[in-house]
Amino acid sequence: MDVVDLSRLQFALTSMFHWIFVPLTLGLSILTAFMETRYVRSGDEMYLRMSKFWGKLFLINFALGVVTGITLEFQFGMNWAEYSKYVGDIFGAPLAIEATVAFFLESVFIGVWIFGGDRISKTAHAVSIWIVALATNLSALWILLANGWMQHPVGYVLRNNRAEMVDFGAMLTNPYGWLKFGHTLTSGYVVAAFFVMGISAYHLLKKSHTEFFQRSFRIAAVFGLASTLAVAVIGDFHAIEVAKTQPTKFAAMEAIWETQRNVGFNFIVIPDTEKECNAVEGLCVPNLLSYLTFHTADAEIKGLKDFPKDERPPVMPTFLSFRLMLLLGFAILFMAILAVVYSVRGTLELHPLFLKLMLFAIPLPYIAGQLGWIVAEVGRQPWIVYGVLKTTHAVSQSISPVQVYASLIGFTLLYSGLGVIDFYLLSKFAKKGPAPYGAALAGSEIPDSGAAKDLQPLKEEA
């Protein structure tokens, strides 16, 4: 493998590993803040116990997310120096704002929330976790606006053999970036909802802390259903934007080879055969793709053959990832509906098979999210900035394959160790369950002494 392929592989592995932690952080911060707000408003200690239990899991996940995210930014200078030189003035701006504003708020107020429970009022304590949740989601906004600019560059000029920003407002209001933000954010909420429901299902099956986990499950179920519906709606708008701004990606997502009107929707196709939808009997709904994309059955969709071969993305992984993501999305929606129905009726424990299903369904939203990123990033190839800069021109010129191999092996070993630590800690404290009544009011620091001890290997590894 050459430097370009090795660097792409390294960035793919590190970013996909990082993305294991980000979506749970996005959603679990909101749920934890909601639970603590319910405690402040009702005075019910159950909600305080909930905020501490789920907050402890949030903190473990947050710590890993911070550690794994730092290496991504280093790679822009190490592996992708030509990219940084060419578009650094534009791409660096939102990342700088994310670090100096959003991450600063997260870092400050997460400390207030952890250690300030017996030093500030209940209301101020709840406000601190809401600020953490807001900052976490704001951090995602700036990063996704940066990524949105890579997908659909706006507000720039090419001058002195580099891209220079001339309209920051254009990047800030880029529809592609905002749709990507909404789609990504709500998918993170789904991850957190299924995480909470899965752990709650485990305890309900064991008949442990029944009332606690019935309430947790119900809150997460409603949150999860609303988020799943939002993912679907925003995803529809996002697909329309992709069709308008990235026609090669859209054609690869749907395996469309010839430019045509009245395009049907393929459920299954072998892209390498270049078969069109209407030619595959029993696997196509006529006119559906044109209607879904542009809301008119006779809309024209450009095919891959209208573009040079060196500007076409890899079709098979883009097509299959998109189809698998849709399939998982429908399964997740079905489970979310059942979760709301059973939890609102109070009949969860009468459906042990469903509880087992929810426990084993925890990874499904994670997988769907990873597939979505494969569609977004592989489907953008061969461009690193769509239509502006190709990936082969963005890699650093001064590094060798040996250097990238060495760093790739190092990252793999480091991340494997971090993954084991994270899984161990989450599993241990999830199985342990919440603090007993009275204990939640006795102290304010979310990670108790046992948690601090178990977090020590994580600190040393970081």
Protein described:
The structure is a single chain. The protein is mainly α and 462 residues long. It has one domain (3-259, 302-445). 71% of the residues lie in helices and 5% in strands. The chain has 16 helices and 8 strands. It has helices at 3-18, 22-42, 45-78, 81-115, 122-151, 168-172, 175-205, 210-245, 247-254, 288-294, 315-345, 352-360, 363-378, 401-432, 439-442, 449-461, and strands spanning 156-159, 162-165, 260-261, 265-266, 284-285, 300-301, 383-385, 389-390. The strands form 4 sheets. The chain has a two-stranded antiparallel ribbon. Helix 7 (175-205) crosses helix 12, helix 9 (247-254) crosses helix 11 and helix 14 (401-432) packs antiparallel against helix 16 (449-461).
Write the layout of secondary structure elements.
Blueprint: H1 3-18, H2 22-42, H3 45-78, H4 81-115, H5 122-151, E1 156-159, E2 162-165, H6 168-172, H7 175-205, H8 210-245, H9 247-254, E3 260-261, E4 265-266, E5 284-285, H10 288-294, E6 300-301, H11 315-345, H12 352-360, H13 363-378, E7 383-385, E8 389-390, H14 401-432, H15 439-442, H16 449-461
Antiparallel strand pairs: 1-2, 3-6, 4-5, 7-8
For the largest beta sheet, what order do the strands appear in spatially?
A: 1-2
What share of the residues lie within helices?
A: over 70%
Determine the N-to-C terminus distance.
30 Å
Measured by DSSP, the beta-strand proportion falls in under 5%
Radius of gyration: 23 Å
